[in-house]
Design brief:
single chain; mainly beta; Neuraminidase; 2 domains; four-stranded mixed beta sheet; four-stranded antiparallel beta sheet; 1 helix; globular
Amino acid sequence: MTTYKEINGTNIEAVASDPSNPVEGQVWYNTTTNVVKGVVGGGSWATVNSMNTARYALGSAGTQTAALAFAGSTGSVTAVTETWNGTNWTEVNDLNTARQFLAGAGSTNTAALAFGGTPGPTAATETWNGTNWTEVNDLTTARRFLGGAGTNTAALGFGGEYTGTPRTTLTELWNGTNWTEVNDLNTTREKLAGAGTQTAALAFGGQPSSPTNTELWNGTNWTEVNGLNTSRYYLAGCGATNTAVLAFGGNPSTAATESWNGTNWSNQNNLNTGRQQSGAAGTNTAALAFGGQTPTIVAVTEEFTAGPVTVTFDNS
């Protein structure tokens, strides 16, 4: 059997404390804790405290430490809303309109937007102020299975399915008061994911024919760019801009995670619990995944931290 020294040219270093600035590929033995550690590439997922209500097809917004989960299906449509403080989920006031397969927008758990979904499809739009949901002006076109990006005062809704048309390229812009139709996606699709801002968004995955397809929005037009490595729909994603996005999960059932750098998608370490139709919050370096279907409906929550990361090896 090949040894570590034969591969790397040196023995595993023995140290009394972990190195302060280890690099990717470095391995050492901590003589104080009697464990072998090393630095591996790629981000990693860690399971944290679960949601109070297991569900899938939910809406989401916020960051890794301040997220919002709303609506979805527990087996029946729900309006339940929960807020995440970085440690625990807490139930707060419900949406006014219970629904599933909706889209969400918002960079915090105190200011979010919920729009579209089913039963319906519906055009219902609600804004969250940290305490209550308020009904505001509807989408121009009622739909479900759509993607969303932006904030509660500057959002983008795209793709999806509406009555009489199986799938659409339709894109709408929210200015805090009204929705306005703008230039369409290039590829017709539903069950896609979105991330970014109203003027710098990314649409990726979906059905029917291009489940790797990725499009970049510059505030005026959509442009097709390099596709996902793993073909999927019903996936989740998050990111603060269209040049830094994380995509994870999806159907066919997968735990695959990919990071977008503005040009290409790169594979990251998988979710611990593969799932589809989950919620997502955060960025491509600090993300949160919650809920979904495995196919069991789950409340599992995971945190993603960008790599390289330090891991402990089993040296028993």
